Task: structure prediction
Amino acid sequence: MTEGLNVVVDIRARIGEGPCWDAENELLYWVDIMENQIHIHDAKTNENRTIQADQHVGAVVLRQLGGVALAMEHGFYTMDLQTEQFTFIGDPEADLPGNRFNDGKCDAAGRFWAGTMNYNGVGHTGFLYCLEPNHTIRKVVDGVAISNGLTWSVDHKIMYYIDSVTKQVAAYDYDLSTGGISNRKIVITIPENGGLPDGMTLDAEGMIWIAQWGGYQVSRWNPHTGQQIDSIQLPVSQVSSCTFGGEHMDVLYITTATNGLDSQALLAEPLAGSLFSIKTKVKGVPSYKFGG
Ligand code: CA
Result:
């Protein structure tokens, strides 16, 4: 186990995912997709609150109006954190019951981007959507297999996107004023034995941190050269996502999963599903809030 790696929440999440940092309140929001749960870890008290939903939860983001917005099995919702009441926004895939929402994130203009995948993980039946602050839902990318990590360059002029089965990170020119993407190219390719790229985040130096599902690590990459710079080894194989948080934005939070592990693997990985953290030399970029 990498020196300095901490177990923040010792839990057997099925698919821990979607970490999102609330800098004002020093809270780390994350989800367990398959257990229909939204977790809120308080970095000051070390408590972990769990909110139960009635469907699979792909991603959680903060709202500028308070509370959170969610990409769930049956579409986009908001939720009030006091009453734990969910309010439906819209479902672009009401006609695709074989799909569910997976990873999502907000851009600096308050748009909530989230994509879908097939429950069986086969076929290219997923899409990447953009929920605008006015609640319009745009279908932006089609032919996606497992829609996963999203992040933007420090100047917001590039959007990075992972469709896990490609084992690559794609980059698009990004227009923050319109939310338009163009000029797709591949900037990072995960090595053959590295598992699948899953969630990702960006640091203040513009480098990308990628959680490697089945790869026992989070790796740091230079998207301008395609070179790997660093790696954080974890004692668990299913490493699903990461984001920066902490009082000084220099703590990397890492979610993991037990999904896909047989009983023997579970014995070998007693910490699988836990939320981890590690202090880093660089600071991360903030988690942006949904504007609607
Ligand atoms: Ca994911």
In short: The chain has a mean pLDDT of 96. The two ends are 41 Å apart (CA to CA). Residues 17, 102-103, 148, 198-199, 240-241 surround calcium ion (CB under 6 Å). DSSP finds one helix and 24 strands in the chain.
